Amino acid sequence: MKIGIVNDSVIAVEALRRTLAQRPGLEVAWVAHDGAQAVRMCAPVPPDLVLMDLVMPVMDGVAATREIMRRTPCPILIVTSDVGHHASLVFDAMGAGAVDAVDTPVLGAAELARPASSLLAKIEAVAAQQADARIPQTVVVPRVVPETDALVAIGASAGGPAALATLLGRLPANFAAGVIVVQHVDDAFAPGMAAWLDQQTPLSVRLVEAGERPTAGAVLLAGGNRHLRVDASGRCVYTDEPTDAVYRPSIDVFLRSVAENWRSRAVGVLLTGMGRDGAAGLGAMRTQGFMTIAQDRATSAVYGMPKAAAEAGAASQILPLNTIAPQLVTLFGTV
């Protein structure tokens, strides 16, 4: 992988260089010292991955992420000091298209080990996502199932926080369906993201607890680095299987469980994201007769997952982001 480093700290850049040197096959393509320089350096040939700091002069990491994803899209991993302290900026960057975030490694043998291993694990996950994006999917054929109570099952990845804020913000507090969201987000950020989304929508947003059922007017967000499923009784359960899934939590695992186990009305929604996760699961839902929606190209920060769903015939509707919530209200109504 050819990797671009964006950081205005000489010490941080050196720590990142030493971390990347621990893995064969990771090459520093270039170093930029502010966001504007990074945007220019991505223009000729985007690298396989950009390691983006958040707080920099001239142009910060959020603005740079937004510009790179608009002009020359490529995977961007936020690497900054104390991601917990910068949680709001992290979510803004992920809303602009960044795939994940991790603390910057620090120099010093004892101090470097854990942050470095976390960063390398994130890089390996991005590499796996890029490989997964090249795997073809099969076309699905819908059939009809009975209708009763309602669930909206949503999957999102890069660009997801902002897309979710827009979609959920347009749903009324008395929305008649329960909502479950699987967003590709690190375990450390899930609680903060739930709290942040709770401020963006009239609905109540919280992390899913094992054993609970979705309820009208509430949004349940998958938390932790385990897969979320709904079982035959309609309850949410966490599982480590499949252990070889590229994504954790996996949108495909979640949507397939809805297709297999949900006995009432449901709609599957696949939002912006890199790769193909969710396309097969959305297809499984459509095969079972559920309505399925994919976000359109024009409003997607990263047109990867919804594109894969559209190309595989998994989406019964392809809609702009701002029309998805009104469509859901039309389908399910209010209580």
TrEMBL record:
Reaction(s) catalyzed by this protein?
Answer: L-glutaminyl-[protein] + H2O = L-glutamyl-[protein] + NH4(+); [protein]-L-glutamate 5-O-methyl ester + H2O = L-glutamyl-[protein] + methanol + H(+)
Q: May I have one GO cellular component term?
A: cytoplasm
Drop me one GO molecular function for this one: phosphorelay response regulator activity
Q: Which residues form the CheB-type methylesterase domain?
A: 146-335
EC number in record: 3.1.1.61, 3.5.1.44
Highest taxon of the lineage: Bacteria
Name all Response regulatory domain ranges.
2-119
**What does the record give as the active site?**
157, 184, 277
**Which residue ranges run through the membrane?**
none
Query: What is the recorded post-translational modification?
Result: Phosphorylated by CheA. Phosphorylation of the N-terminal regulatory domain activates the methylesterase activity.
| Record key words, sorted | Chemotaxis, Cytoplasm, Hydrolase, Phosphoprotein
Under the heading Pfam families, the entry gives:
CheB_methylest (PF01339), Response_reg (PF00072)
Where is this protein chiefly located? cytoplasm
Gene Ontology annotations of biological process type: chemotaxis
Q: Where in the cell is it found?
A: Cytoplasm
Where in this protein does the record say 4-aspartylphosphate is found? 53
Family matches, as PROSITE patterns: CHEB, RESPONSE_REGULATORY
Q: Quote the SUPFAM superfamilies the UniProt record gives.
A: CheY-like, Methylesterase CheB, C-terminal domain
Q: What does this protein do?
A: Involved in chemotaxis. Part of a chemotaxis signal transduction system that modulates chemotaxis in response to various stimuli. Catalyzes the demethylation of specific methylglutamate residues introduced into the chemoreceptors (methyl-accepting chemotaxis proteins or MCP) by CheR. Also mediates the irreversible deamidation of specific glutamine residues to glutamic acid.
Domain comment (free text): Contains a C-terminal catalytic domain, and an N-terminal region which modulates catalytic activity.
UniProt cross-references to PANTHER family, sorted A to Z: PROTEIN-GLUTAMATE METHYLESTERASE/PROTEIN-GLUTAMINE GLUTAMINASE, PROTEIN-GLUTAMATE METHYLESTERASE_PROTEIN-GLUTAMINE GLUTAMINASE
- Which family does the similarity line name? Belongs to the CheB family.
**HAMAP family assigned to the protein according to its UniProt record, in alphabetical order:** CheB_chemtxs (MF_00099)
Q: What is this protein called?
A: Protein-glutamate methylesterase/protein-glutamine glutaminase
**Name of the gene this protein is made from:** cheB
